[in-house]
Amino acid sequence: THIKALYNVAGILTEKSVLSSEGYESHFAINTLAPYVLIKGLKKSLQTKDKDDELSVIVNFSTGVVNSVKNLDISSLPNPKSIGGLTGAYANSKLALDMVTCFMKEELLKDGILIESVDPGATKTSMTKDNKAMPWIVRLVRPLLFKSPLNRANEIIGAVEKGVKDKKTGLYISEGTTK
């Protein structure tokens, strides 16, 4: 079966460390490792058979809080010393996913696969509602400033489709705009 698009949307933000069954901290396991494993496992199904075919695309969901990371210690990702809420293990794991996007773009392009990172922006999701890992001020303004998932999806799809049409890979798309 040929797959045209893979959207790695799953993500976790917690205030406490939770270990996966393999012993990895959940932010790393879900936000970084799972998308990488899916990409590797589905690569053959995503490959474009003919150079004239439309390219497949992988979209890794990131976050704007990656900009808060000053130093990324890759060795601490599987087992960080602290979780640190929105700007700790969560931001680090999403930045690591952005790095996966950058490092894999050339390898995947050889097989007719584009890969992009997407920061959807502040979105009203179950993860952002009443989540104690979110700063209290963010939870306070959420109803006013966060957009609906449908609104964000339309922005993302439009930007990703433009990237595919232009055959651009390794893009970082933030709130529907290519950066």
Explained architecture:
- Helix content is 39%, strand content 12%.
- The chain has 179 residues and is α/β, with parallel strands linked by helices.
- The chain has a 5-stranded mixed beta sheet, with helices on both faces.
- Helix 1 packs parallel to helix 2.
N-end to C-end Cα span: 33 Å
User: What's the tally of helices?
Assistant: 4
Portion of residues within helices: 25-40%
Give the amount of beta strand, in percent: 5-15%
Largest sheet: 5 strands, mixed
User: Residue ranges: pLDDT <50 for 5 or more in a row?
Assistant: none
Q: Please identify the structural class as seen in this structure.
A: alpha/beta
Give the ordered list of helices and strands: EHEHEHHEE
DSSP strand count:
5
Strand order across the largest sheet: 1-2-3-4-5
The dominant shape is globular
Rg, rounded, reads 16 Å
Average pLDDT, to the nearest integer? 90
Considering the chains and any ligands shown, give keywords for the structure.
single chain, 179 residues, alpha/beta, five-stranded mixed sheet
